[in-house]
From TrEMBL:
Alphabetical keyword list: DNA-binding, Transcription, Transcription regulation
UniProt-listed Pfam families: HTH_IclR, IclR_C
Protein name: Helix-turn-helix domain-containing protein
This protein's record includes keyword Transcription: yes
SMART domains: HTH_ICLR
UniProt domain IclR-ED: residue ranges: 70-254
Organism for this UniProt entry: Agromyces seonyuensis
Amino acid sequence: MTGRGQVPAARATARLLRHLAAQRGPVPAAALARELGLPRSSTYHLLAALVEEGLLLHYPEEQRYGLGVAASELGSGYLRQAPLARLGAPLLAAAVDRLGESLQLAVLQGREVVYVVEERARHRPALVSEVGVRLPAQFTASGRAMLAALDRPQVRALYPDAGAFAHRGDAAPTSPGELRSLLASIRAAGYAWEDGEVSPGLASVASAIRDAAGWPIAAVAITFRSDEHPRDSWPDLAEAIRPTATELQRRLGRQVGA
């Protein structure tokens, strides 16, 4: 088979793996063929090959197929290679040069954000958001952007009651109702913000980066002195960082989320 002839099979393999990764559990072969628009015979041959390679598992009693151990190894390799940091750092650096303010890239882990890239602008204040630092998501613009991109049941699972909230004596939400109200405002505005809740005198606005299923995989934030950028300028700052978030999303091979 020529290289050109192998491309359709490679695309079918990628589509099948991505489809299974989005399911809650193993799926029958007939359903896979139907949902992906593949011939049944080709689907069974493809499934057999992927089972042999360890990328899929066959559950004979259920007559279903699910992801295998080798698929998990791919995910671990993805994390080891730090694609967000590698792809995000040059994009954030270019945005810092263009905007003259510091930018960060963070991911959501449970109720915390973890910073994976920080690009500080010249002559700008030092920030607490160094690489590897964890902060409660409810305080940060990045965390709020990602929480606003989650389904409401997922937010409830993370913050079931007031005991789930960190307290620092500031204006951050401290109850599920306050958080719901804030996230509704963020969804309506199209960007997230915080003002002095991480560092006094500094504010941030952020935009979430979503995967093809709409799940927030990261957020880009710009941080600035709040006395230099009044609130009526924050929508413009959010628009200024949106191309960076969109380009990183594109480079990660995802479709732009809503």
